[in-house]
Each structure stands twice: as C-alpha cells, then as structure tokens.
Amino acid sequence: MQGSDTIIVIDFGSQYTQLIARRIRDAKVYSEILPWDTPCEEIIARDPSGVVLSGGPASAPEEGAPAIAPELLRQTFPVLGICYGMQTMAHVMGGEVTKGESAEYGRTDIRITADHPLFTEIPRELTVWMSHWDRVATLPEGTVSLAESAGGVPAGFATPEGHLIAIQFHPEVVHTQYGQEILRNFLYGICGCEPSWDLGAWSEEKIAEIRKQTRGEKIVCGLSGGVDSTVAATLTHHAVGDRLECIFVDNGLLRLNEAREVMQAFEALDLRVRHVDASERFLTALKGVSDPERKRRIIGEVFIRVFEEAAERDGGADWLLQGTLYPDIIESGKRGKGAATIKTHHNVGGLPEDMDLQVLEPLRDLFKDEVRRIGRLLGVPGGILERHPFPGPGLAVRCLGELSPERLETLRRADAVFIDAIRKAGLYNEIWQAFVVLLPVRTVGVMGDIRTYAEVAALRAVEAQDGMTADWTRLPADLLDGVARRICNEIPEINRVVVDVTGKPPATIEWE
C-alpha cells in the first residue's frame, strides 16, 4: 500500500505465514508475503522497512532446502527469522543446525538471556509456542544468544548491533505470551515503522484498483449471502456500479431456509441480485461421490458453468467476482513454494481451467475479521457480517460420505436445532463457528423400547481470531444435553450425538 511502511514476510511454507502478516497488520503496519525463492533484488526494490522470515517444514542443512539469499542479510533493513527462519539464518551465516534429541511442540518455557530491543518490557521468563525438530546447535560467529529453552537449547540470537535477529518460537500465535508486544518491538523499535496503515485507506485504493483492472467490462458475482462474497460485492459495486450483476445460486447444499433468508437480507443492499435454483443440477453431479476433494472440484466446476450460463442469458460477462480470502489461499497451497495443500477451496483450486471468465478477487489478501471491518465501513448490515463462516461447498463437506436429498435434509434440521440453542443462550456472537456434521456411521439405539439403527451427528463449535488456529468452545453441559435430546427426539434419522473437542491444529475446523 502506497504511503505506508512495508514489512515483507518471506514464506518458507509455514501454515502460520499468513498469521504473521495478519499480526503485523494488527499493529497498523502494512505487510506483504512473498515466496522464499523471490529474487533478492525484487525484495530490495520494494524498499521494505523490515523483513520477516517465516517458519516452514523443511530442514535447513538438507540439500535443496529453501534458503535465504545471503545478500538479503547484508542490507540496511532489519531481518527477523522465526522458527525455520531462525534455522536458515543460522545455516547461511555459518552456524550449525542439527536434529534435536527431541522435538519441541506446543507450549514451552524460555528464559531471556540478554538485553535487546526485541524484548523491551518483556519478562525474563515466559511461555511461548514452539513447533520444530531441528535446533541451532552452534550460533553463527559474531552473534549473541538472546534466549534459551529448557536444557540450554538456543531460542534466539542476534548480531551485536541488533540488525539481524532470530527466534525459535512463534510470536504470532496467541499461545505465546507477549507475542504481539514482541512483534511491535520489532516493528516500532527496531524497524522504525509508524502505525499508519488502516483498512479505510485500503478500501479506497482497492476501489480504484478494481475500476482500473476491469476497464469498463461487465462483472458477475456468485453471491452466497455470507460475509466474504457480500463484502466483495459491496466493495466492487462502489467501484463499478451497475456493471456488477450478482447471482445467488441455490445449490441444494444450503442450510435450513437459507435461500429465503439470504434474498431478504439482500434487499437492504443496493445490489442487482438474481436468484438461480440449480439444486437439482448440483445434486445430480454429486450423486455417488464421497471423496471430499472430488466434491469440492465438482461443485467448483458446476458453479462456474451455472455462472457462465446465467451471465450469458443477461448479455454475457467478462469477470467472475469471488470472495476469496487469505486462509482459502494458504489451505489450498497456492501461496509460496513448499506450502502444503490442506484442502481445495472451490474458489481457489476447484475452478475449471477452461472457464471463459477472468477471476476478480479483491479480498484475497485479507483475513475474515478484516473483511468484517471493511464491511462495517461500507455499511453492510450487521446481520450479514455477524454470520458464522460457511464453506463454499456448503453442506456437501458437512454431510460426510455420499450425498442424498434425504441426508442433507436430516443435516439441515439438526444444524438448525444446534444454532437455535446457541442463539437462545446468547452465545452465537461469542463463537467463531458452530455447526453439525452428519457422519456416515450408524449406531444402535433404543427409543420407546424399540431398537433403532440410525446415523450419528457431531457438534462442532470453535473459538478463533482468524480461523488459522482455533480451540474448541467449552459449551455449557446443559446446552449440549438439550441439543442432543432435541435432535434425537425430533429427527428420527439420528440416534446419537457426539461433540468434537479437537483444536486446529491438529484438526481443521471443517471435517472435510
């Protein structure tokens, strides 16, 4: 973003790379992410105020492992290496990186061993989040130790002038005590950044960029009624006006009464919205399919064909507007070499190669909470902005196994019971995401002295700040008991309810 200090985050394939960028933006400093193999001269040409090296799954001493260019460490801007970033810095600078005798994963206690601006007003002992196997056995010559974990394992080092800094732990995750303060010390105290970046200015620049990029051409948007597509459409409408046509597709994979509720919500927005019922087409294409990746790709293919046909009936279009976000990109493995594919998002990896429309993704560098803040700036109604995230493939990835209209209806009814209970308890806006998963597993039950053999419903509720990491929500036992009783009493196709108590990681929020 022009007119702001910029921090470049070099991506070595960590699932936390986007989270680093997000935390930097939380400090009102603009950040950009570049793959690790970006030419050094390109990074230097961007005139960054500082560079952060992300974590990653590789082993720095191995041949072919991602590495930082030595030239980058000879510039005037500060460099902060995190986890693998510390290891590749140490390796390039002549230190020794070896396999540790044991891994360090999760919460770990460390001790700060030297005064440094990075740890200004930070306690000498704190609990941090580790996620590594390799260790820096010998620090590079001319550097000083900053911190140690149990047993004297190096947890940080720096050059004497403080220009190059490395830490083994992850300050970007909420589990690290004083993590955001450590990042602010790097941004403000070491890089000299000013907290001048804000989403209002970003919105103005993005509106101008959309107007220039689309060059007077027509845009079609697959409007789902969720936060992402609605904010993307509202932002784009500010840029191009009636050149944007929104199409709401009922794919047969929506929640109970969702199509009607969404169309009613759109009445509050000054958008051209057309309703297309393609539910039978989607369900026919998905018949007999149980693999989640195939489901996602089929849904992506059918979505595009429906959009193309609907747009053609209205005179054609040149662009497809989508509400793609940062987490969609990283989980689909599209940001930086070495990043793992967690699951294919239909609006990232599920698009057919031969589609006729160019893709417009104005929100692809933002996180969910940033999108909500932009939505408020643009006047999007709170009822839309406060909705829990809903996956692009809809209930197809919450109804595990083969899909059928009957199983989907069972899931809709169970999900409605769960959400209704959460709303009545006043907990809906305190939870990042809550939903029901229908399992392709049958269990024996007994109702009214009669044997039953029905499916299992799993309740999932999580707390998160951005969806990159999450913890399961400790819902009241009375609420869970009431939900389980209602589901089993009102929905005969289900006779057992379980609760998912797994965080992210190791699980993802959605089951598929």
Total number of strands: 18
- End-to-end Cα distance, whole Å, is 35 Å
In one word, what is the shape? globular
Rg, alpha carbons = 25 Å
Helix count equals 14
The amount of helix comes to 25-40%
Low-confidence stretches: 334-350
Classify the secondary structure makeup into a structural class.
Answer: alpha/beta
The order of strands across the largest sheet is 2-1-3-4-9-8-7-5-6
Give a quick account of the main beta sheet: strands, pairing sense, barrel closure: 9 strands, mixed
Descriptive report:
The protein has 512 residues and is an alpha/beta fold. Helices cover 31% and strands 24% of the residues. The protein has helices at 17-26, 40-45, 84-92, 179-190, 199-214, 227-240, 258-266, 279-286, 292-313, 326-331, 368-377, 382-385, 405-424, 477-490; strands at residues 6-11, 30-35, 50-53, 79-82, 96-112, 125-138, 144-149, 154-158, 164-167, 219-222, 244-250, 273-277, 319-321, 358-360, 433-447, 450-463, 471-472, 494-499. The strands form three sheets. A nine-stranded mixed sheet has the order 2-1-3-4-9-8-7-5-6, sandwiched between helices. Strands 12-11-10-13-14 form a five-stranded parallel sheet, sandwiched between helices. Helix 5 (199-214) packs across helix 6 (227-240), helix 6 packs across helix 11 and helix 13 runs antiparallel to helix 14 (477-490). It starts with 5 loop residues before the first strand and ends in a 13-residue tail after the last strand.
